[in-house]
């Protein structure tokens, strides 16, 4: 099993396209309204494009009209790491994949979206891979 946190920059460059590398490994941001999943409503699981870890579900995706895919919650809290990001002269919260440490996007709170959490996980499409599947029937999932 690959320990993705131990990969070198050279190994990441081999695994990823230049565009993926720039966002996932250099905390870049894709241009708004260009990502392949911005308005996707297909049911399925969004995995980390760098390591394949399952990160988000279509059931928590919502239309934020912000230009990037938006989720109000990750698939599970331990799937992502959130850390303070003071770049660009503002305080934001960066979201990273907990499995491989790759940059995914940012999370914003209290914007007034009509979602259960009022959080907006603003994630670059290029950091995700959607696997289509119907939502699982899980009566214990509240
Ligand atoms: Zn990952």
UniProtKB/TrEMBL annotation:
Signal peptide: none annotated. Keywords: Oxidoreductase. Its EC number is 1.8.4.12. It comes from the Bacteria. This is peptide-methionine (R)-S-oxide reductase. The lineage of its organism: Bacteria, Bacillati, Actinomycetota, Actinomycetes, Mycobacteriales. Residues 9-133 form the MsrB domain. The keyword Oxidoreductase applies. The keyword Oxidoreductase applies. It catalyses: L-methionyl-[protein] + [thioredoxin]-disulfide + H2O = L-methionyl-(R)-S-oxide-[protein] + [thioredoxin]-dithiol. It is an enzyme of class 1 (oxidoreductase). It comes from Corynebacterium atypicum. InterPro entries: Met_Sox_Rdtase_MsrB, Met_Sox_Rdtase_MsrB_dom, Mss4-like_sf. PROSITE patterns: MSRB.
